[in-house]
Amino acid sequence: MDLQALVDAASSRDWDTDPVGTVSYAVVGLGNYARNVSIPAIEAGDYGELGAVVSGHHEKASRVAEAHDAVALSYEQYAEGEATAAYDAVYIATPNRLHLDHIHTAADQQKAVICEKPLEATAERAEAAVEACETAGVTLMTAYRMQADPVIRALATYVSEGGIGEPTKALGEFTFPVLAGSKGADQWRLDAELAGGGALMDVGVYPLNTTRFLLGSEPIAVEGMASASEPFGDRPEDPECPQFADEHIHFHTEFPTGIVGDFTASFSGSAASWLEVVGTEGRFRVENAFAPGGERELTVETDSGRVELSGLGADETREEFDYFAHCLLTGTPPEPDGLDGLIDVEVMSAVYEAAQTGHRVDVGAGADGR
Ligand code: NDP
């Protein structure tokens, strides 16, 4: 793939076979991302529509349902299987530690699931989510919107075709100042039990998962350093609960064939998101790499020159929901499946262990022979 082909690919879908039909969603949890990004993305897409909304707040649910001609349900009504005819698939957008119960309900109802990242708060619970869907025979996709982003997809092809030679390392950052929003310190993202951790689980997962996708490769070992100050909390003493609400995390990943990755994620500081991949014959850097809504800025440097491109891409959340619906309509397994989500939770748990012990920790096949 030459650079012009990369630019062309960065604004097109490489998966769309134009199937007939639509998928109707039940959206579980009407929080910020579901209401302001996901529901508009479903409605803007080619293959999705809203069938039901599930919320702990009746007035909010009724208002959103009425605006979209959908059914309003409480969590209890959803768990009891009310109005299942109104939707084909379930989108889960609650705090991380609550994903599994809603996945169990969907699996029991024989509904396909698209679940927000990270898949769950612990590796055990993420594994249970994968098993529940496998046992029920329903599709489970982890909502990794970057894997539906046309720029990131084009770059994955560029890497696999040797555009930068042999990859040698990846570098990245996602800083998201959570206290700058309206919720202040009183929010589940600072609750290590509900979130499964802190900055790593919430935003560190982006450079991790996107790098795994770009390289087509899995980490075999990690090291980590973490810190936290008030109100983010401190490391718990309980060894059974190694995760804590990290404010800053730096982690190093080793991939097979000597590729390394170095990433940082923070819950404080000036917002930033970027990713850089280096190879033997070139490198590229994506600025605004993980912000919702596309508009990536890309710099590619190879032996043949340097190119800067801006304004690339599309609304990757709309792309994500259309991709998921396309998978269901065509009987194709999604690429970011439940196992993809489980691997990240396992890697992030290993990073927390490494940060607590100060030791290098094996993951994946190196750790348990999988
Ligand atoms: P919010 O806090 O804005 O919303 C979460 C919603 O979950 C609440 O509004 C509430 O909905 C429901 N909920 C149920 N139980 C609880 C509880 N005990 N505490 C708090 N909320 C509860 O979170 P976000 O929308 O930002 O995040 C939701 C999920 O989406 C998370 O898994 C997060 O990681 C993921 N996310 C993904 C993004 C992406 O780019 N893909 C971006 C942002 C978040 P209700 O009142 O309707 O019951």
What would your notes on this structure say?
With 370 residues, the protein is an alpha/beta fold. It has 2 domains: 15-144, Rossmann fold, CATH 3.40.50.720; 146-314 and 335-367, Dihydrodipicolinate Reductase, domain 2, CATH 3.30.360. It contains 12 helices and 15 strands. The chain has helices at 3-9, 32-44, 58-68, 75-79, 99-108, 123-136, 150-160, 192-195, 199-215, 316-330, 338-357, 365-368; strands at residues 23-28, 48-54, 71-73, 89-92, 112-115, 140-142, 167-175, 221-227, 248-254, 260-266, 272-279, 282-287, 296-302, 305-312, 361-362. It has a 9-stranded mixed beta sheet with strand order 14-13-12-11-7-10-9-8-15. Strands 3-2-1-4-5-6 form a 6-stranded parallel beta sheet, sandwiched between helices. Helix 2 (32-44) packs across helix 10 (316-330), helix 5 (99-108) runs parallel beside helix 6 and helix 9 (199-215) crosses helix 11. The mean pLDDT is 94. It binds NADPH dihydro-nicotinamide-adenine-dinucleotide phosphate (NDP). NADPH dihydro-nicotinamide-adenine-dinucleotide phosphate is lined by residues 29-34, 55-57, 60, 93-96, 98, 116-117, 143, 145, 188, 202, 292.
